[in-house]
Amino acid sequence: METLDFAPGMVFTERGRLYTESLCPGKRVYGERLVSSKGKEYREWDPRRSKLSAYLALGGKQFPFRKDSTVLYLGASSGTTPSHVGDICSEGKVLCVEISQRMFRELVSTCSARRNLLPVLGDATDPGGYSAFADSVDIVYQDVAQKRQAEIICGNMDAFNAKYGMLAIKARSEDVTASPESIFRESEKTIAGRGFEILDARSLEPYEKSHEMIVFRREEPRERRTRSLSGETVS
Asked: Domain 46-223: which topology?
């Protein structure tokens, strides 16, 4: 079992498969394979079941997560990918927001055994509805199937003062008549127009049809970037 160099101690690989170290040994979430190695248990992270895993499997390397990150996960569904994010951010917290009551019941079950996952029944278009659970977050990850996906994540980035964002955008949820490529470019334009820097934009095919992962971060003020180039320490 080897760790990925851009996600040290968080995401692992063996024989071309991805894994996270299980925060709850012996427990499966979606029937994933469990593997033991050197006294630790790892959960296989299937790219056919997780868009974040698909991004990594397709060569994506912009990975802002850290072990102590606080993550706002929008569109948590039943908790498949959030459970792996919880493994990764083992010393942090994952706020899992889901709007569907049916999926939320499954999400609650997934989160019950994981101390760092907090399920919240809420609407991603209304950050105020779940702002009581966190003043700020490090990362906003979004996977919602509705219109205005770029605007939604940008609104949450601003509401929680997040530095990094990851948007798994579904083109067909925006406009079934437009080409996916045009939807992706327009979404990237929207994000950049809100003052964020695009770090990566990568198709998720063949794992997810008409999907793209956009990774971005909040741009530092111009003066702050200039001071950094002069050698002064900045955060």
From this structure: Rossmann fold (3.40.50)
